[in-house]
Amino acid sequence: MSQQIADGHPRKLKSLVWSHLEYKDGGGGGPRAECKYCGKILTARHVDGTSHLWRHITSAKCMEIQQGKAAGAVDEGNEFVEYINQIYDDLVAKGLHSIQ
């Protein structure tokens, strides 16, 4: 997360949600966050907080894309499945997803 500071971001991005999004300088339109899974661009102004970012990555559409990528990773034998499991654990810890 320190890379954002080096790229000119004035604050350290502390929230776990930033491991799922990439900070983008939006120029005149303000800072943006790009979802690493579906590519959707969201606002990232500090006054907006992170609740809308959490809602996005836990949305049904984005979760479906995440799970699809994880299923593909099983065939490839890479570490993506472990990464998705970490995302899920982060969401449970944040209280944004219940264990069923």
TrEMBL record:
Cellular component, GO, one term = nucleus
Is-annotated flag, keyword Metal-binding?
Answer: yes
Q: Which residues span the membrane?
A: none
Q: Mind listing the GO molecular function terms for this protein? A: sequence-specific double-stranded DNA binding; zinc ion binding
> Is Hydrolase found in the keyword set?
no
Q: What keyword terms does UniProt attach to this protein?
A: Metal-binding, Zinc, Zinc-finger
Q: Which GO terms describe its biological process?
A: regulation of transcription by RNA polymerase II
Enumerate the spans annotated as BED-type domain. 12-69
Q: Name one Pfam family in it.
A: zf-BED
Q: Which PANTHER family match?
A: BOUNDARY ELEMENT ASSOCIATED FACTOR, OS03G0264950 PROTEIN-RELATED
Q: What is this protein called?
A: BED-type domain-containing protein
Which species does this protein come from? Oryza brachyantha
